[in-house]
Amino acid sequence: MFIGKTNEISRRAFMRRTGQLAMAGAASSYALGLTGIGEAAAFSGSGGYKALVCVFLYGGNDHGNTLIPYDAANYNRYLAIRGGANGGEGIALARDSLAASVLNQPAGQVLTDDIRYALAPTMPRLKARFDQGLMAPLLNVGPLEAPMTRVQYDNRSVPRPPKLFSHNDQQSTWQSSNPEGSVTGWGGRMGDLALTSNTNSMFTVINATGNAVFLAGENALPYQVGSGGAVQIGALGRNVYRSGAASSALETLLRQHNGHLLEADYAQTTARSIEYGGFVNNALDNSSLTTDFGNGNRLADQLSVVARLIAARGSLGVTRQVFMVSMGGFDNHDGLIGQHEGLLGQVDAALDSFYRATVEMGIADRVTAFTASDFGRTLTSNGDGSDHGWGGHHFILGGAVNGGRFYGTAPQVSVESNDQVGRGRLLPSTSVDEYSATLARWFGVSDSELPSVAPNIGRFATRNLGFMAAS
């Protein structure tokens, strides 16, 4: 019998935060974030600075045209299912366009059906990083509550993640282990454990992309930045109605406390924005980072500010940080060919610039970026796009990555095999919990605390997938 462990963790998180707020009174969650209440004793912050950067691809990335079968037998299966190439109707990429993108086959590693993969042609930089041993693909990863076979899926004898194939719910499930409405994410739960490692715990978890549950902890509160720096209250940067007195009065009102707990919490959050905005922007302005992130790439803009914040880590008083950036546009039901390659090209350029920035800072082995998405897509085409799937392929990039080889299990190129649940929707062979646990161990989370980060990990045999070097 399976117990709803993820729901229980969310319930306990809510109850603990509510209880802590009640004890704190007007101090609110802002104060709790600074004091770092939590089980931090089981976290190792030794060994110098470390950061994790989640790169979320909103909409559901089409993994079938990101890592493409290249050997003749598997490419022909791919072409027969997806259709198209060389002017035909469908969504397969032409094989001759992939020749420069073929990934070297690692010594001693044989994948399912002897498959050879090529990376999308618009991702030459990540291809080079794979060849250098700095990038690792994780194959067929997705949310699971427990290991599952196709027979178990069909018989419903093992619980499925709730609300499969739904954008909002699967975004939340990837980020938190629960569907929409979750109150904590696994990035935030790592932040909870890391709070006391930082002199200024305010900057333990930083969101450069907008609200997302991934960085919400029980005590760790995401500090939000934009591409230009700290997100500040615009009216306080100038005279309101051309009056300095009006501006001062507005600030007083925004900071004002009273006995209502939620209003006090809001006032403290507002005060944080006012008090720390200038401090953060000053630290960013003093950054000497020279890496060029290019122009007109929203993901690169976000990663640029993340890199500058990492460069300012000494001023910010941090040794452990979790960041989130994102890019949308991946819900390609139509117009996959052309549009999808363009999106992947932006991801390629942004991630490579970010890696070069970590090299410039001399901490490439201290910073790890990794991708995630709502879900993979169907292998079948709906004409000129693909539909919502389940498992997909993702990438891990950094100097501490055991790159140049594949992790997880390569799926068969089929719409009839037992590693898919119809139309080529991949049944994940690796769980998000195994993915997050591997990253968490590198970050400093102890084995005893892994279930607080990855709540289903106890049901899986593997807590370390091996794509991160020991440190």
From TrEMBL:
InterPro entries per record: DUF1501, TAT_signal
Spans annotated as Disordered: 166-185
Superkingdom of this protein's organism: Bacteria
Polar residues bias locations: 167-181
Pfam families the UniProt entry points to: DUF1501
Name the UniProt record assigns to this protein: Tat pathway signal protein
Organism: Erythrobacter litoralis (strain HTCC2594)
Top-level taxonomy: Bacteria, Pseudomonadati, Pseudomonadota, Alphaproteobacteria, Sphingomonadales
